[in-house]
Amino acid sequence: MEIERKFLITKLPENLEEYPSYEIEQAYLNNKPVLRIRKSGDRFILTMKSGGFMAHEEYELPLDEEAYIHLLEKADGRIITKRRYKIPCGRLTIELDVFSGCMEGLIMAEVEFPDLPDAESFVPPEWFGNEVTEDPRYHNVFMAYGGTDPS
Is 59 an annotated catalytic residue? Predict the structure, then answer.
């Protein structure tokens, strides 16, 4: 079970370059259920996600580069690209995504939680903007299929 909350970011935290980061490229093969392929560094992953916003099932399987490239040719919609920063937040980690390519200008943060009570009691840092956890327009699969104008 993956439990996460999503927020728009309008002001980047100070010293962003000090946090570890990496590039992500991802595309979608299906939207119900969500089937995603992702390249993250030298890792290639096939992910299946069930429906739901804050809490949903998620399963990941490793791919090799050849399989990733083959599946990328079959992807629907747009390829999503972003730089992900890992920012410590107490015992949690903020995953700050700065989008590029077709979603240039969009910046979002996701925070994953061990359980629902922790997710529900989370107080976001002051630099977080509006919460968009329940807004389907800010789910990557929706953006890949043509939604959400980042401007």
Answer: no
SS3 call for 149? coil
The tokens describing 141, both together, are: 């699969």
Least confident of 11-15, 81-85, 125-129: 11-15
User: Both ends of the chain: CA-CA distance in Å?
Assistant: 32
The overall average pLDDT reported for the chain is 92
**Full-model pTM:** 0.90
Active-site choice (28, 68, 85, 138) = 28
User: For the chain, which domains are there?
Assistant: 2-144 (2.40.320.10)
Buried b (16+ CB within 10 A) or exposed e, 104-125: eebbbbbbebeeeeebeeeeee
Interstrand relation of 21-31 and 58-63 (parallel, antiparallel or unpaired) = unpaired
